Amino acid sequence: METLTFWQSLIIALWVAAIMSRAFLGGATLTLRFSPLMTGLVVGIVMGHVAEAMIITAAIQLIYMGVFSPGGTMPSEPSIAAAIAVPVAILGNLKPEAAIAVAVPVGLLGAYLYQFRFFINTFLGKITDRAVEKLDDGAITRSIVLYPVIASFILFVPLVFIALYFGAPVIADVIKALEGTVVFHILEVIGGGLAAIGIATTIYVIGRREYIVFFLLAFFMSVIFASLKITMVTYAILGALIAAIFVLVKSSNNRTASTNANDASGFDDDDDDF
């Protein structure tokens, strides 16, 4: 069976550490952290199985569609979950549903690891306080930007590397041995159920009555046009056009309503009588 090499494990671990340390700065890092898709792509490129990795990661993404991050904390870390679950699924030739069952506990452990990162940063905050007292701009910058990134790399790289290099093949072997058993079936059922929960949560959050029609339209379009094998890119472009039309019509209606209200009140937008 294929295994992860030293360098493959190290590259994936460095990628995860870069995301978790916010080394990319700004909102880009948060987007990468909150979605497993890019991590799945990186894993696929590193392992040479891009198509399989993206299919597995797409299934994992479903369970995080309804996950929120109040205060920057998440109940489960998507990037860490994908970094471990995708290699395990590829090595063990697992179905996406089984990969989801692996991703959930790994993501939960990753959340505790991220919280430990916050604990480490409290000590770095003391360095910042001393730098502020001395009015040392360089020391303040290093304590806020550089030192937390270095601390995160020291924390995440070794642990993720060990989990990948030593743990992923073992987990893949165990799950592969369970294939065809009741345990494996339970993993697949749980994985499929978690994906459904993620979708249901998202619908509940964005499920305003006036927008439900778009969800139903997308669902029935995917069913009706399934035989045409339309790609997701085409659906995305079509969805963007429908959204643009909706926004234009809504904006036009709002302007019309505003004009009518002004006419009814006897004032005009260009009046300067006040």
Automatic annotation (TrEMBL):
<dbReference type="Pfam" id="PF03609">
    <property type="entry name" value="EII-Sor"/>
</dbReference>
<protein>
    <submittedName>
        <fullName>PTS sugar transporter subunit IIC</fullName>
    </submittedName>
</protein>
<keyword id="KW-1003">Cell membrane</keyword>
<dbReference type="GO" id="GO:0009401">
    <property type="term" value="P:phosphoenolpyruvate-dependent sugar phosphotransferase system"/>
</dbReference>
<dbReference type="InterPro" id="IPR004700">
    <property type="entry name" value="PTS_IIC_man"/>
</dbReference>
<dbReference type="InterPro" id="IPR050303">
    <property type="entry name" value="GatZ_KbaZ_carbometab"/>
</dbReference>
<feature type="transmembrane region" description="Helical">
    <location>
        <begin position="98"/>
        <end position="120"/>
    </location>
</feature>
<feature type="transmembrane region" description="Helical">
    <location>
        <begin position="144"/>
        <end position="166"/>
    </location>
</feature>
<keyword id="KW-0762">Sugar transport</keyword>
<feature type="transmembrane region" description="Helical">
    <location>
        <begin position="6"/>
        <end position="25"/>
    </location>
</feature>
<feature type="transmembrane region" description="Helical">
    <location>
        <begin position="211"/>
        <end position="227"/>
    </location>
</feature>
<dbReference type="GO" id="GO:0005886">
    <property type="term" value="C:plasma membrane"/>
</dbReference>
<keyword id="KW-0598">Phosphotransferase system</keyword>
<feature type="transmembrane region" description="Helical">
    <location>
        <begin position="233"/>
        <end position="249"/>
    </location>
</feature>
<feature type="transmembrane region" description="Helical">
    <location>
        <begin position="37"/>
        <end position="64"/>
    </location>
</feature>
<keyword id="KW-0472">Membrane</keyword>
<keyword id="KW-1133">Transmembrane helix</keyword>
<feature type="transmembrane region" description="Helical">
    <location>
        <begin position="186"/>
        <end position="206"/>
    </location>
</feature>
<keyword id="KW-0813">Transport</keyword>
<keyword id="KW-0812">Transmembrane</keyword>
